[in-house]
Fold this protein.
Amino acid sequence: MEALNQAEQQELQSRMEKKQIKEFMTIPLMLELHQLYSKMVQTCFDACVNDFTSKALHTREESCVMRCVDKQQKATERVGLRFQEQNAALMQSGQLPGR
């Protein structure tokens, strides 16, 4: 195997750093998504399931859970969109923290 020249070494180093950053950022995102999912499950369960006399959900409980999950997902999506809009506005005005 031939030795890498300076430019190839720099390119390899750059790619490795980008991969490490991507992997580093993925772990907190996965943890955040897990926490969000767990909170949604707990919230919808607490709000909708109240009859523990059978193993299966009753029709009204199942409908409630479906509505609750849909509502939680839509709210999360809306909040995410608002954050994106706010960050875009801050970037355009040059007021984004950390920059």
Q: What stands out?
A: The two ends are 42 Å apart (CA to CA). The chain is about 80% helix and 0% strand. The chain has a mean pLDDT of 84. Helices lie at 6-48, 59-93.
